[in-house]
Amino acid sequence: MTAVTDRQKLSYIAQQAADARINVELETEGMTLNLGPQHPATHGTLRIVARLDGEQVVSADPVMGYMHRGYEKLAEVRTYAQITTLVNRIDWLGSFANEVPFILAAERLMGVEAPPRAKWIRTLLFEMARVANIGLFLGEMGLQVGAVTPAFYAFRDREFVLNQIEAVTGGRFHPNFDRIGGIKDDLPKGWIEETKAVMVKMRDFCDEMEDLLLGSEIFAARCRGIGVIPPDVALQYGLSGANLRASGIDWDLRRDGNHGLLAYDELDFKVWTHPDGDSFARFWVRLQEVREATKLVDQLCDGMPSGSIQAKVPRIIKVPAGEAFVSTENPLGEMGYYVISTGDLVPFRVKIRSASFNNVSITPWLLRGVYVPDIITILGSLYFILGDIDR
Amino acid sequence: MLALHLAYWQETILRLVIGLAALLGLTGAVVYLYLFKFVSFMQSRLGPMEAGPYGSLQLLAEVGKWLQKEDVFTERADRFVFAASPFVVILSTFLLFVVVPAGPTDEVAHMSNSLLYALAVSAISVIGILMAGWASANKYALLGGLRAAGQLVAYELPMVLAVIGVVISAGSLNLQHIVAAQSTGHVFGWSGIGNPYILTQFTGFLIFLIAMQAELTQTPFDMPVAESELVAGYMVEYTGIRFLVYFIAEFATAIGFSAIAATLFLGGWGLPASWGIGHEAMHVVGPIVISAKTVLLTGVVFWVRFSFPRFREDQLQRLAWKFLIPLALGNIVVTACLKVAF
User: Fold this and answer.
1) CA-based nearest distance B145→chain A, Å
2) Which candidate, A70, A201, B115, B226, has a CA 20 to 30 Å from the CA of B79?
């Protein structure tokens, strides 16, 4: 199931050969450790079956599907307007971001384009979902390596972002706010100023995380050089998002794709990469991404165009026959919807490409030869959401 | 002091009861003060607020909850060993506590080499933890138990070596003598604050604190119970009253070690002799002084615990063997040289 790869595997074989003589005399029995499906470190129901030799992992396999909810099948019996409610629950920490690529795909099939203000508000909420989602990761990563306190700070400050999202959409977690051809409502009065104040808070939070975790020698000792993904391997396994950028590959769909679909073309932002590819790099890249996202929110608040928020669409939406694939740079990585329509009220087939599934599928390759505590560091730094793996 | 003449057995029982009450009372106070409130404020939350005024009776509620929980055994557990292990661990704590002096004669058991005894009995808990790890018939518990064994054995050594500096300075293995030496000592001829060994043995104090943190298996040395990796390590199968005993043991041991550290480095129950407080009065003042110092040091334990990430097992061993032990040995050599020179 794993690709035959290179240096790590070869070194493993060499090590086994070198140990062979000792092993003949001191034969030790391996142990199979079953991490999950109920395990505090997998935030959800991912199961990792690890063969251990002492504390060293000989092989590890992720077992997915404990939370499979059949969204692709459910989408086939729902109208396009109803599907946003479903897909909200895929990556439940950055819910709004799940709706956007689906709506964009439907719009592409219908040949509708949202007015500029709708696009900007979409992008705004998209970036706020990113701040809420990855902001929580920053604290969670501390929890995975044993520091309890950062997680509380993350939950505390994420609440401010969720409050702002709630003020617009009415839902903290599941906004269900995106509509074909626009968005449901306009921004409330005074919201822009409040949001900019919250973004200042989130930047402070990033500084705090930098002090607490990046500045800690123990954190560096736990994360530096742990779970190194070389760029070519990252590409082979189809990683995306911060996991890919932490391996030094400069690829971000906000900048490199979807021209004209969202407001990113008119914004000024930097895509952060890190050459190391280890857990530390993944944390670092995400930290920078939260900072960059808060700045993006500021820009979006400042430059918000006026005008309509809804393009003209028929009252009963029937999508013309055809196929469309749209993917966006979601908080967890590239998320795409392949929608096939036969001209009906409901889609014929929806295929969801979610980032976490690919990000987790590298674990058998990555976990070989590491120690048990490193499993948790690596899983934490790969950052997946179970709903995003199992759909 | 008291105009009572008790038989030896009566006196011993009285001392035991008072000692036990002091230990449990202090443990409760520390759990409320640090685990519930101090940490809550660190983590920008309120902590328990409902049970009792300002949540102060929360611990009673928790104890009540644990007491009524079902006593669960794993199917393949070694029942006797599994059941006995928490009590072995807490026994180690109680045995440690009996020699901590709280006043001129106020200790549960008089011993001439009480420091040696304290360091010896504090190691008993390893056996209890290994018992728990093995008897639980759980892989997480086994990993946790083995990690704990390796860790506690590794950190016993720097701890003992750090203490030797104090022993050389005081010239005694008796905790009472060490307290007296700090109380009557002087710093460069000035006896205003006596000579608490934290001044002359600061390296030893730091090593002792680090080793103490590891012995208590608190973060950053909490791999045996690492909740994000091993769920709860060797405690994973325990519920109800046995978990409660483990819980008490964890914090009571923190108190016990802090009390030993306070006695060795902060002057224990003693106040500087130059302050001229009478011998009789110290029976009353002494327990307050040692309790305050102990609670203060326990605060450091919890402060560190909730501030830092966790080491990995091999990094922890490296810290002990390659850094702390050489440092402690160097400390002994320097202390011995200075002792001879002055």
Assistant:
1) 13
2) B226
A222:B309 CB<8 A: yes
Condensed to tens digits (0 to 9), the pLDDT of residues A47-90 reads: 888 888 777 888 888 888 888 888 888 888 888 888 888 888 88
Chain A residues touching B314 at Cβ < 8 A = 371
Question: Distance between terminal CA atoms of chain B?
Answer: 39
CA B8 → CA B12, B13, B15, distances in Å? 6, 9, 10
- CA A369 to chain B, closest CA, distance in angstroms equals 14
Contact A152 B44 (CB under 8 A): yes
Closest residue of A to B236, CA-based? A39
A170-212: pLDDT as tens digits: 888 888 888 888 888 888 888 889 998 999 989 999 998 888 8
For every residue of A114-180, DSSP letters joined together read --HHHHHHHHHHHHHHHHHHHHHHHHHHHHHTT--HHHHHHHHHHHHHHHHHHHHHS-SS----EET
Domains annotated for chain A, with CATH where assigned, are 71-390 (1.10.645.10)
CB contact under 8 A, B309 and A376: no
CA–CA gap between residue A88 and residue B291 (Å, rounded): 55
Which of B226, B227, B307 is closest, CB to CB, to A373? B226
CB neighbour list of residue A379: distance below 8 Å, 6 or more residues apart: A41, A42, A46, A48, A144, A363
Q: ipTM score of the complex?
A: 0.79
Burial of A363 (0-12, 13-18, 19+ CB in 10 A): buried
**Residue of chain A with shortest Cα separation from B314:** A371
| Residue B223 CB neighbours (<10 A) | 28
pTM beyond 0.90:
no
For A146, the closest of B45, B140, B220 (CB atoms) is: B220
A84 vs A75: CA distance, rounded Å: 9
Nearest chain A alpha carbon to B319: A218
Bridge partners of A335?
Answer: A328
In 3D, which of B130, B124, B153 has the Cα closest to residue B143? B130
Q: Are B69 and B250 in contact (CB under 8 A)?
A: no
